[in-house]
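From the pipeline queue, job 12 of 40. The input is one protein chain; the requested action is below.

Action: predict structure.
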Amino acid sequence: MNWTEEQKLIIDLRDSNILVSAAAGSGKTAVMVERIISLVKNGEDIDKFLVLTFTKAAASGMKQRIQKSLIKAVHGKEGNVTHLRRQLSLINKAMITTIDSFCLDLVKKNFHLAETDPDFRVGDQSELSILLQEALDEALEEEYEKINDNDSFRKLVEAFTGNRGDEELSQILLSIYRFILSFPDPIPWFSENIDKLNISGEELKNSDWLEEIKRYFLLLLYGAKDYIKRATEICLEPDGPALYLDILKQDMDLVDDLIALLETDMEEFMMVLKDFKAPKAPPFKEKDHPEVDPEKQMEVGGSKNNKSLRARYKSIIESIKHELPYDLDYDKYASEINAMHGTMEALRDLIIKTDKYYKEKKKENSLVDFNDLEHLALKILRSSETAAYYRRKYKYIFIDEYQDSNGLQEAIINQIKRDDNLFMVGDVKQSIYRFRLADPDIFISKYRSFLNNLEGSHGKAVNVAIDLNKNFRSRDEILKAVNFVFSKIMTRELGEVDYDEKAALNTGSEFPGSNPVELNIIHKNASQKSSKENTDEDKEDGNLKNEADLEIESMETAELEAVFAANRIKDLLKEETCLPGKRERKKTEYKDIVILLRSVSNWAGIFEERFNKEGIPFYYDGGKGFYETLEVKIVLNLLKLIDNIRQDIPLLSVMRSPIGSFTTEELLEIRLEYPKEKYFIGALNKYIAAHEGESAQLASKLKVFKEKIYDWSYRSRYMHLNDLIWDILTETNYYNFTGALPNGKIRQANLRMLVDLAYDYEKTSMRGLFKFLRYVEKIAKGSEDRGQAKTLGENDNVVRLMSIHKSKGLEFPVVIICGLNRQFNLQDMKDKILLHKDYGIAPKYVDVNQRIEKETLARTAIKLKIKKENISEEMRVLYVAMTRPIDRLIMVGTVGKLEAKHSSWKRGHSRFSVYKGLSYMDWICGCLFDRTSFEEFIEIMKEGQWKNWKLNMLTPYDLRLKTEEELNTIDKRIASMKDFKNRENSPYYREIGRRLSFKYPFMTSVNVPAKLSVTDLRNLGNKEFAKLRYHIPGLVDVFEYNEKDERFILDKDLKGADMGTLLHSVMEHLDLRGNLEKPGIINTINQMKERKLLTEGEASLAINIFAEKIETFFKSNLGRRIISSKIVYREAPFVLRKGAREVLKTLNEDDLILVQGIIDCYFIEDGEAVIVDYKTDKINEKMNISSQIERLKEEYRDQVILYREAVEKIGGLKVKESYLYLFSIGKEVLID
């Protein structure tokens, strides 16, 4: 491979810490792999490397690339082949992984230093969220009990809770708790910053908070200067209002004076600001200045124009006055901050208590979360011996995506690094995970310090920063567009990095042809007349057009952009695309195209619906709405009933659904008969009781429904939840029913996902249906909510839609970025308590006695800092989006009032304009249409080419054609249906009706299984055969026996079937001619254990429970007869064919059923057979034993009769006697 000079330097440099600032598409992964291979070829062992990546997928991909390179080196005999082959054997042991996996491995191996359970597991996110909420609730409850003795806590509650509960306070606590966990020492950091609230006026005067506010004022003042400069430029134009030039000069001098004062004397600045008054502009009369364009005069300083440039600059000055309303009274500002110190201490105590309880709960369940792993790893590494061990172990440390590290991860790395063995690679322009508490400042500060190139003892630079800015992914037009935008908007102040020549992207690959970047602007509120599609032909088609217009006008922005994207995709499929470095072009396929959105919430569903209409295969991995699908809600409501039937909404939901099949009229009948019952179940019970014994169809239907609920409720106590849900779906036929509905495959897939969710739940530490419902509720409310099931995968030939965050690290031939004009989300600036890693904590000032709240100077400063950081983050997100495409970049945004938007775009891309920008569209168009008039802008859009960009203006009416076609198709279908309805009936009408209304005459046979076991027949009773159609074996638990309690150690009671199976197994393997006393029986059981016929627990159980009882059996009269018999059959299987009516009289007489079973034992005595059936049923010896025995005889009589019939029909033997042997009391019972 041909490496660039910078890449070769990175690969070959040794004995230095290297920080690589690798721009998008610069081949950083390939360089990193090549550096590792180069070191290995020079004799290094791969297991001495620690390679940390951001995701498991990236780690797996990295390992595969290294492996392939090693195999290639072995085949090419590049270096010591024996050494290289050894590396191939070591590659699977090499620590090429994520930081979380590294910490997990470290904690597992040093659990004793972390003081944690060696068998811990990483908890499920929802499981951990529930435990954290429980810990918080307990901490709050404890504080509430002593609220009268804790004034600070009382104020906290009053200040930060709503009128209906403390949910708002809970959310604040959880948010703060998660934030501080990103620090190496969370509680000390929090305490230290709360103490900073106890500040004096003098300390506040020299604080970082005030410096941040001053920087903001400076930004505003430069914005005011921008307005004055633009006004001056307009005045200097040939038809500009030159009479304002002098006054604008005075305006500029005033603002310059304010800037100078702000940088030197804040008190004087505030005094001058308070008295600020802009000079009055000279009067303007149009007749006295015929050479002046009136519109330009209005734009510069028209007295009636509140949006003139002079008016805007003056409004900026006024806004600064309102930021500091106390004439810079530092003591007053400090007192407001101090007032919240006690309240924040109460908050800290509550978080400490929550943290304590949360850790205890995790310890009880042997759980950790990912934050725990990192904190425990740091705790372990703070042991000097352990840290020294890992420093010796890892000769080289590689960190990928370094820009996404946080302070805690940095602290871990600092514990194990040597002086010169770090290799860090990343791109701060792609740091887009601040919401996950990533800290790009770590990368930025290290990059700036590394530029100093400090020399080490070997004469080389110890710390080296290298830039990779050659892009090998995208075509030149895309890279130039990226450079064009970001060179204008990204600065150190807004963007946290200067986008200069070192940061700019250089072309590394050649592409045939030319594909300029497209910007499409949809003018949402354009009048119909402005549409280029508004032709006479359209006017003639009055009715249709009116319907189309109504639909178009109701379209939201997402719908418009979805229509645009669908149309554009269809056009793209007719074109060709190409990949980097390849001259030949290929036909564009669906899978070549991706749609990127800043946020997919509320948009993905609209795009999916539109693409389905257009017949475009579509895939979106994510989203929400799974728990809102009808089929899932109905099953969850049924589970709520099974848990607690006294819930009216779930009860009515299920009864009205296909599961209950009750009509609204039936439900009304029940409620109207008993209107005073509090719960509907009460009315239902009374209705059943009132109509007991009558032939009322509704009462019997209600009774069956209620019995089903109680049956499932009983089964929920011992069944696995996923088995229970699957049983419900099959027994009710609801699974099949959903499959017959529109989108049936997706609906059934949703139900399977619910079953899988139940399976995953049971892997957690939680148990029971109630907790499962809470678990689901937590997922549905939180960020873990999932999208509906998919029938297409992302690897199919589909158009993919994803968020820009998910696209990071990926590349696509064609990228369509939608939603350019969606406003930035700045909601985190509105939190009542703001946090910042550098500026600490800042709550609103709240006076609970006077019921007032307001901003403090500290909170204002943090809010301004957060906004700057959010703007920087949004810039980086846009950078990631624009650097994903290989061949085509298409962008689209929708605007409402175009002229008003243009008025902000034409002001350009100054720092102030960028700061005030509300969307990506504002930034991009501010770069493209700087200093253009609205008329020029419209002309540019009509021409379609500007500054090497392809531009396109669309209105909703330009997208009308598709909608009209859809409506036309619908109208044709409706007309066709009406025509069919009005036609004369076919002569075959009756025959068609007869066939369509056909009812299967043997419905009673539908649910009859082909084969039944004897046990099924015994358990059937009056239950439906349908329950026997789908029999899914449950998972078998391995039982332990507690000798003290004489019980299995299990969460549920044992079934008799479990006991019986074990006894039958032992009875089958005993040697009837051997030692049948207790020692011999125990010896047989141990042999069975050695032969793996029994587990250790089962063998222990058999010895403790059955050994003595089996000995008693063989000493009994019946046992001795068995021993004496020369022919004994044990566990003898049989299959009998019986008429269905013999099994149940209600069945069809022509049906046949195969009955299968196993006879425990029968022996031949005097030429006749004697049947013995072993029973482990419990007999309560405190009650009447005879009555219990009679009950068992009746219960098992039919079963024994079947055994007798099998022996006589199949064996050709007469059965002399049939016995039950009751092991619980050691008694034989003759069955007549």
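Job complete. Residues 528-554, 1026-1055 have pLDDT under 50 and may be disordered.
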